Amino acid sequence: MQLSTVDSNELKSEQTRVDHVIQKIEAQANHTQKLVDQAHSETRSVESNYSQNAKINTFEVDDRIETNAEVQQQKGLVARAVENESILKRQVATYKQLQDSPYFGRIDIQDPGETDVEPLYIGTASFADEHENFLIYDWRAPISSIYYNGTLGNVSYQTPAGKMNTDLVKKRQFSIQSGKITNMFDTNETVVDEILQEVLGQQNDTYMANIVATIQKEQNDIIRDTTSDLLVVQGVAGSGKTSAILQRIAFLLYHSRTSLNADEIVLFSPNRLYSRYISDVLPSLGERNMRQITLADFLSQRFQGLNVETVFDRYEHNSNMTGADVELAEFIEGPDFMRLVANYVNNLSPDKIQFTNVMFEEKPFFKATDIRKIYTDLPDTMRPADRFLKTKNTLIKQLKKRLDEEANADWIHETIDHLSNEEYNDLIGKKRLRAFESYDDEIHYLGRKLAAKHFQVVYDALFNNYFIDVYSQYVSFLNQVEFPKTVSSAAKQKNQFDFQQAIEYHRLRLMDAAPLLLMRDLFTGSGRNRQIQHIFIDEMQDYSLAQMMYFKHAFSNAKFTLLGDSEQALFKNVEAPQILLTHLKEAFNVKKANLITLNRSYRSTYPITSFAKKLLPDGDQIQAFNREGSLPSVVIRDTVADGNQALIAICKKELQTYGTVAILTRNMTESQHVFENIHRATNANLLSDADLALPKGVLIMPIYLAKGLEFDSVIAYNISQNNYPDQSSTGILYTMASRAMHSLTLLSIGAASPLINEVVNDHEHLVQIK
Ligand SMILES: Nc1ncnc2c1ncn2[C@@H]1O[C@H](COP(=O)(O)OP(=O)(O)OP(=O)(O)O)[C@@H](O)[C@H]1O
To answer: Any idea which positions bind ATP (predicted)?
Structure first.
């Protein structure tokens, strides 16, 4: 490392510049605040206009389009006013942040042929003075990349106009807090360890913060990759994968300002706590948050009315799956099964499709046989989805014809005669403004509306594609599928039975969700969202290949960034990253795939990472970041009562130093027991999947809810031999240990797990026994 501290005159002149820049920012912030106030009153007036004008009437199918257009126009006005106001508000927020810490880096560059060296300052956002001189460059600007990438000397960087070269003469790094420079170095490294130590040594402030001031070179490669269609990151615990995702999103939004907006980016997050945990990062960089969804929420939205098993349910209940069950599940969740589904749909003859009656008042309105006939009469050469859509359109046409006939029925005329004035006017709606040619026309119009209302359920059934029974279709598929030879016919039968039984109780097994969705989409042509441009999946090791293949199908225009750590697999065994990439490349059928590996772990102190990596058979590849701290403690007690007493004492002691102390358990039941035993003494909070916020103090949760999170102090509860008897628990123990930033305690009731004992015996200098 080349590092030189800067002399005091330099420090003085840098501080003078900081003061000057802050003054300019302050003036701009005040001016923009006035614009916010103006924009606010404008928004209010447009909103009140909207609520007076937009009356929505959507029960008549034909009216939907018309009403929609009007509503959309009004909505558009409101949205623009709100957007304008929020842009200005964001600017004010950005200025406020810059006032506190305007920049963190300086690069001095000398372009070819120039005699002058130009200093450029880099911060979380750009800022120019009234003469358009850039006092701060955004960290995402093309030139800023050399701050993260380049060592001194000749360097190049990418611009929209192509590659540029320059001479990097100086690289300086600052810590600035409340407008005062607290630390300053000249270096030729990406970020000097001393500054990183300072940042990492701080206590967890509950929610994640941005890392733009200290991005590391290999993280920068992830953030600035704009060319891969599939970017896979295998990164050890605490290596900055989640940070990289968020900074990458900020970078992509900046670089494609006109063609990409935050709503076109979806992040699959492991749980809702995590969603909240990361939600401040993008706003702190002046950007809107992307969409976030958990797999469970995604699947419940797609299977309305069914209770879809979650990974957590599966983890909680299925720990007793036998080898045969596991093998079968692995096949169903693998890429071949998805290919079999696609083949099945594409080659199925119409007589095998499970069309179903569309019912009205307990009688078939459209019979399955008639629906099948419509489908069969269409050309064989059509894709199933196109054929299905044509069939649907024919059915809708027939329904409309029926509505026209029904509009003249006696019961309808009678109903019209008995309408009150108010009902009559409501029904006729905006149409009243246009004259009907005759009274008969008016009555027919009303009659048709009443008929539409009457048959609404039929329309909805057609609209939602309920004339095919995908669940029965899936059973037929299971019936004919060739399972691997090792799966017995009894196991196959049981599988089919379990699926059907679950459906009967309105439940769906997680493993069937992806193939079933694919089957439904391929038959009906629905379910695809071509607007989404980027999909991010954090903790990818918790997804099956089938699920990821389904995402690729559903978001067919998106580029994919998948991040995870195969060592932190809680729910299954995972392949090595390179093998996973090969599978994904095949399954995703993409041109440009890229694998980046992160081996340096930043989250925990040196002693904690040194201990945690010894839990893994191939942990030696993990590089611990050099930050001081005390050794992890192993506390062993013989009884639950003694264990609880020790736990309470540890919590109290840790709380004297740290803001958050997390007790991590194997599952929810264990969390509940711990909570009952200690909450009075420690004021602990029990967290569940439904929780959306992370309080301070003592938190108790099962390990799967702590995925992606970190805490000042972690207590891994009951790491006993009983709980973690063999190597299948390695991922869980490693994930637990690697959640700790500053302090780690492992508490065992009775003999400790052999996985822990091995480390204690072989590397006794890495732990303290208490
Ligand atoms: N370059 C960096 N500068 C400062 N802090 C960093 C940097 N990289 C990572 N960190 C910090 O390290 C911690 C771990 O980062 P992050 O949660 O992104 O890692 P991860 O790889 O997603 O971890 P895990 O897989 O264990 O959940 C966070 O507190 C993050 O702010």
So the answer is: 235-242
Amino acid at 748: S
- The tokens of 356 are what? 């179903």
Q: Which of 69-78, 148-157, 370-379 has the lowest mean pLDDT?
A: 69-78
Q: What separation in Å is there between the alpha carbon of 409 and the centre of ligand 1?
A: 69
Ligand 1: centre distance to CA 568 (Å): 15
Single pTM value for the model: 0.87
What ipTM was predicted for this assembly? 0.99
User: 215 in ligand 1 pocket by Cβ < 6 Å?
Assistant: yes
Is the minimum distance from the CB of 306 to ligand 1 under 6 angstroms?
A: no
- The pLDDT value given to residue 127: 94
Q: Can you tell me which atom of ligand 1 is nearest the CA of 239?
A: 21
Cβ-contact 184, 14 below 8 angstroms: yes
Residues in the chain: 770
Conformational region of residue 480, where left means phi above 0, alpha means psi within -120 to 50, and beta covers everything else: alpha
Is a pLDDT exceeding 70 seen at residue 56?
Answer: no
Q: How many whole angstroms separate alpha carbon 137 and alpha carbon 126?
A: 4
Our answer on whether the CB atom of 124 is closer than 6 Å to any ligand 1 atom is no
Q: How confident is the model at residue 769 (pLDDT cuts 50, 70, 90)?
A: confident
Report the separation in Å between the CA atom of 101 and the middle of ligand 1, taken as the mean of its atom positions. Answer: 21
From start to end of 139-264, where are the E strands?
A: 153-159, 162-177, 180-187, 230-235
Q: Which of 318, 272, 316 is nearest to 668 (CA)?
A: 316
The pLDDT tens digits for 394-451 are 999 999 999 999 888 889 888 988 888 888 888 877 666 566 777 788 888 889 889 9
At 636, is the secondary structure helix, strand, or coil?
strand
